[in-house]
Design brief:
mainly alpha; disordered N terminus
Length: about 100
C-alpha cells in the first residue's frame, strides 16, 4: 500500500481509497496540471482542499479525470463542455440505475 505523500511510481496501480495529490492525479491520468486545474474550476472535478497544493483527489476523481482528458484531447471539448458532459454522463448512469431498479432494463 502506498503512503499518501510518497511519489507515484511509473505504471503503478492506483488504489481508490488513497487520495492523490494534484501531481499524482496528473501522472495517473496523463493530463497536464493546466487541464486538471481548469476542470476543477469548471466543476468537473471536486478535490478536497482549498489551494491546488493542498488538493486531494479520490478514486472517482481519477475516473472522471481520465474521461475528461478523452473529451478534451480526442474530442476537443473545452473545460466548460467537459464539466457539462461529465454531469450528463452522471445523470445517464443514475437514470439507468433507476430503470434497473424498476426492472425496465
Amino acid at each position: 500500500m502506498r503512503h499518501a505523500d510518497s511519489p507515484l511510481p511509473q505504471g503503478a496501480i492506483v488504489e481508490e481509497e488513497v487520495p492523490l495529490t494534484l501531481m499524482e492525479l496528473c501522472q495517473a491520468c496523463h493530463a497536464s496540471q493546466e487541464y486538471v486545474i481548469a476542470w476543477v474550476f469548471e466543476g468537473a472535478l471536486e478535490p478536497v482542499g482549498v489551494m491546488p497544493q493542498d488538493w486531494r483527489f479520490t478514486g472517482p476523481s481519477l475516473r472522471r479525470a481520465k474521461l475528461a482528458l478523452w473529451l478534451s484531447r480526442d474530442l476537443e471539448v473545452n473545460p466548460p463542455g467537459v464539466a457539462l458532459a461529465l454531469d450528463l454522463f452522471d445523470e445517464i448512469a443514475a437514470l439507468e440505475a433507476r430503470l434497473e431498479r424498476f426492472g425496465l432494463r
